[in-house]
Each structure stands twice: as structure tokens, then as C-alpha cells.
Amino acid sequence: MSKKRKLPFNRLSVKIILTVIIGIFCLAALLSVVNIAVSKDVFVENFSESQKKAFLQIDEGFYDLFSAAGEVAVRADTSWAVRQYLTEEDRTAREEMEAIYYMKVHLKETRLDEFRNLGAMILGMNGKSYLHNSAKRTVPVETILESRVVKNALKDPGKLVCEYAESGYTDDTKNVPVILIARTLDYQNGNPCDGIVLFTIKESEFEKIYDYFTSETNDIVILNQEEQVISSNNEEYLNGEKEVGKILKLLEQEGKTEVRQHDGNQVENYLSRKIQGTNFQMLGIIDPEQAFLKQYNFRTVVLLTSGITVLIVAVLFVFVRQQTKPLSRLVRKMRLVQAGNLKEFAPVEGTEEIQELSKTYNRMLEEINRYIEERMKIQEEKRNAEIHALQMQINPHYMYNTLASIKWLIWQGDAEKSTKVIDAFISLLRNTISNKEEFVTVAQEIENLKNYVLINQTRYGNRVGVEFYVAESCKSYKLPKLILQPFVENAFFHAFPEGMSGEISVFIREEKHYLRFEIVDNGVGMDTEKLHALQNKTDKKSEHFNLLRSK
């Protein structure tokens, strides 16, 4: 069953990148909030300042209009032609035409023609009227003299008064909202008023003076001398849906021309300014937060911030990955070492700290390999010494037994058998004593065993038979010299006591990359108690070289 691949969340590089990414996004969000808040405050201040400057420009526009109207009124008040036209009775048609002609001449001396959208009408208390432009009067003079604007002008003689009306008094202003501006004419002839100069301008034309300074976020309201709304870009102020009384009262209470009003989450700025040269007033209602939302493109800010953040994260990811890559390689090498491969040295690369760590790791690995090699060498020398000691014990013992057997054969006078035994003994000595190699092939070891068996059978007879079962593939393998002889000897002298017959079988085969040796006999064997006693008898010498010693 294959192991599942572990998720990389426990890696140092991943932790660093995730931590930095979270930090960057938190920082980006915090900076965005702070940036928006600071930008909002700065925008509100700058927007309010820009509206103040806009008020100055609007004031200049209104001043030009009202000063032109005042100039016309003053010229009409000083014109002899106007005075004669409005005050003298029983005049001939020629005199009337002459007066009208000079009235036009006198009015042309003013800036009236510069304001083509401003209509001028002179009304006399005697019922006479004069229109400076080509428009035609559609309302009787008596009705006009009874209008509210005229009455207000009569209440405040010598000053311009202003009113809003749903319709004008000429054919070009009929049923059209207009602004009416009036001023009395007094020629000091004993009458409180000899006439009225009435100016008419369409409210839409009047609004153009300030309309380009307005938007969805700021409104402008023009108030007359009685603080009545005469013009506004927002119709809700004109039709009374929104009142300006509270705003005027707040400005009066604060004693300022600029007030910021907080109503829950909504903030409004109120600006007030008297139109110079008049008793009229401009009122600005500004929603700076709404203006900020209109001007400040949050989507662009978010996209830009996100783009910069992603770019920084990408660069950081590449940088951290490059910096931690040597550390990852070192970890992989360590895992290979854990699997048993002690030759996996780490490349010395990366930062100074990682290089030092890699050097230390490599030195440690070198020391481990050196220690293992030394231990293996010591074990090899120890094993060779043990084998040599074993052979030193075997050789004298075996030579004694063999010579005794040859002596016995000679004593019996069997020359042929003695010769075979001597040849076997010579071959055995050649392979054991003359051959300095510690290891021999399986075939050589079997040949030595056969010579040994021949010598023993010569001495003790053929009551113990020995059979060899050796796999052909194993004959070329090497093993320590005379390693099997003590086992066969042990079987000869301990498994078949007192002339007992039997069989000894020697099996040699390859099993799972190992050589397996089995020496099996059908002798008397050994009970458990005796086996245990022999295993514990390690400090006593035995006359015979038994299994305990060769184990």
C-alpha cells in the first residue's frame, strides 16, 4: 500500500510565504482603509475650499448682473427723457417720440446690451410703460404695479429687490419661471415714487451663472432680501420640499459663514455668502462624502492594491523559494540518509547559514562513514582472528586423530589403505596449512570433508556413512576454511557412541541470497537438560572439540 503524499503546509517555505502573504494582505487592507480615510479628510477639506472659491466666482457673476441692473436703474433715474416720459402730462406725439428715442439712447449708454438675456421694462405710476427690447408686454401696467416685486420695491425705495415668479410679463417670458428685479424711480417732484424699473431674466438663464459649479453632491440656493428662495439648481428647494430655514438658523447660531453638520453617518457642509452690492444671499449645501465617493474610484484602488499585492507576493514567492530551495535539498538528503544511504552528501549552496548547516551535515556524515568503516574493519579483523584461533584449535586436534589412525593402519599392515589415508591427509594438510587463504570454495570445503570422512572411516569403520547434497550453483561460493569440519566431527563422536551405526547428511544450498548449511544425523541426539547444561558450560575445557565450541 503506497503512502499518501503529505501536504506541504508543514514546510518552512510554505509557512514563511503564507505568513508574509497574510501580513501583506492585512497591511494592504489597513493601508487602504487608512488611505481612504486620509484621502477622504483631505478631499473634504480641498472640496470645501474649492467650493469657497467657486462661491467667489459665482458672486462675481451675480455682481456683474446686479451691478448692470443697478447701473441701468441709476441712469433711468437721472435721465431727463425718462423723467419727462413718466411725469409730464399733455405731451404731443412728437414730444413722446422724442422722449422715447432719448430714453433708448440713455439706456444704451449702460451695459444693458451686454446682458441680452436681461429684459428691462420702465413703468410709470401714470400708467405708461417702456420695453427696451423687442418683446411685447402681455400684462396690463396696473397688474404689474400690483405685483409683489413692485410692492416690495416700494417698501424699500432706491434699492434693488428680487423675486421669483412662475411667469413673466412679456410674450417671451409668459408661463416661464423668471427672476424679477425691481427698483423705484423718484424725481423729487413730491411724489413718493414716479416709476419702477423692472428687470426680467428667465430662471434658467439666471441659473447658468452658477450652474456649472453645481453637481449631484452640492447644491446652490439664491435667496432674496426676505430670505426667500428665488433660484436653485435643485427644484426641491424651489418648490419647498426642502427647507433652508434650519440651515440659515444654524448659520446664524454659529455666527459663521461655514458650518459642518453631522447627522448620523451623513455629513453636510453649509456655506453662506452675501452677494456683493446687494442684500441677496447665496447658500451652498455640500455633501463632501458623496462627492468623495463620486470622485474616488474604489474599484480602481482595490484593483491597483490587489495587483501590487499579487506582484509583491509573486516576487516574494520566487525569492523565498530560491532561498529555501537549498534547505529543501538538504532535507531530502537527510531523508535518504534515514533510509540507510549514508553517501548522500548535501551540496553547499544558498545563504551563509544554510551553507554552514550543509557543511556541518557533510562533516557529520563523513564522521559517521569513517566510524562505520572503522567498525567494519575491526569486525573483519576480529572475525579473521576468531577463525584463525578456531583453526589453530582444530588443526592440532585433527592432526593427532589422523596420525593415530594412520599409525593404527600401519600397525595392521594394510599398505594400500594406509597409502589412501596418507594421500587424503596430505591433501587435507595442503588445503589447510599450506593454503594461507582464510576462505575456500564450497567445492574445496566438501573435498576436505570427504578426506576427513575417509580418514575417520578408516579408523572407525564404515558404521557411520556420510552423504553430501550440494547445489551446483553453490560450489563456487566461498566460506571460512574448515568451518564445517567441527560439526561433522561432532556428529561422528557424539551422535553415534559405542559402535552405533548411522548416517550423516550434509546439505548446502542457496536460500534468499544466503548459503544454508545443514548437517543432519540420525544419532542419539541430546535431551533438553543436557543441551541447557552444555550451553551454560562456557568456562570449562572439553577434551573433544564439540558443537558448543564451534557454535
Describe the 3D structure.
By secondary structure, this protein is an alpha+beta fold. It folds into 2 domains: 258 residues, PAS domain (Beta-Lactamase, 2-Layer Sandwich); 157 residues, Heat Shock Protein 90 (2-Layer Sandwich), CATH 3.30.565. The chain is built from 16 helices and 15 strands. The strands form 4 sheets. A 5-stranded antiparallel sheet has the order 2-1-5-4-3. Strands 7-6-10-9-8 form a 5-stranded antiparallel sheet, with helices on both faces. A 3-stranded mixed sheet has the order 12-14-15, covered by helices on one side. Helix 1 packs across helix 9, helix 2 packs across helix 3 and helix 11 runs parallel beside helix 13. The longest helix is centred in the N-terminal third of the chain and has 67 residues. It is rod-shaped, with a radius of gyration of 64 Å. The N terminus and C terminus are likely disordered.
